[in-house]
Amino acid sequence: MDCCNKSSQKKGIFSGIFYGLIPHIGCIGFIVFSILGVTAATAFFRPFLLNSYFFHILIAISFVFATISAVIFLKKNTILSFQGIKRKWKYLLTLYGTTIGINLLLFMVIFPIAANLNSGAGLGTTIIDTFGSNREFQLSESGALITLQVAIPCPGHASLIIGELKKNSGVGNVKFRFPNLFDVDYNPQKTSQGEILSLEVFNTYKATIAE
């Protein structure tokens, strides 16, 4: 019996990891290929990330799949009932807990780190923002700094925003800060705040200058 419980929990963990990753397939693919410099692949994922409902749809699908998986598991063990749910609560808690945990790990840790791997942002000038906190940022020669607050649905979209910003020849380093802030180093002689805010990507994900 103990062996069966351990097997069920392992199955719940692996299923939870799979369903937790499903909503982020587009973001993960875009980040990986951006770092590798595979422009054709990033061009493939870009339209998906520009769909503002893409993330929400996949989140819903992941929990639907997790629920279907749980129902199949309970039915296979002939305990598809309230009593069966009570009996297999550890498996169900593991399944849904892992799904949520993977999402939180991606949101809070992996995506913010990955976004800055290819951003060109480095350590340098210490900046004190309006909230009184210090942050390190490398300003290029003749550079000015603005901080954009962008209405992205999750930090997985940060790499998309950074990539679009850096298409502007006047933009230098860009650094993402959780949950939706972008420190943008730009050359005022080559571009302006207005030009930066008028980028096509901001038609989908609204950007404002953070005060």
Strand content: 5-15%
Largest sheet, in brief, is: 4 strands, antiparallel
Q: Judging from the principal axes of the Cα atoms, what is the shape?
A: elongated
Parts with pLDDT < 50 across at least 5 consecutive residues = 122-134
How many strands appear in the DSSP assignment? 6
Strand order of the largest sheet: 4-5-3-6
Domain count: the total is 2
What gyration radius follows from the Cα positions, in whole Å? 21 Å
Descriptive notes:
The chain is α+β, with helices and mostly antiparallel strands. The chain folds into two domains: 2-117, no CATH class; 125-209, Alpha-Beta Plaits (2-Layer Sandwich). 56% of the residues lie in helices and 15% in strands. It is built from nine helices and six strands; from the N terminus they run ααααααβββαββααβ. The chain has helices spanning 2-21, 25-36, 39-49, 54-76, 82-87, 89-117, 158-165, 193-197, 201-204, and strands at residues 125-128, 134-137, 144-150, 171-177, 181-186, 207-209. The strands form two sheets. The chain has a four-stranded antiparallel sheet with strand order 4-5-3-6. Strands 1-2 form a two-stranded antiparallel sheet. Helix 1 packs antiparallel against helix 4 and helix 1 (2-21) packs parallel to helix 6 (89-117). The longest helix is centred in the middle third of the chain and has 29 residues, at 89-117. The chain is elongated, with a radius of gyration of 21 Å. Mean pLDDT is 84; it is low at 122-134.
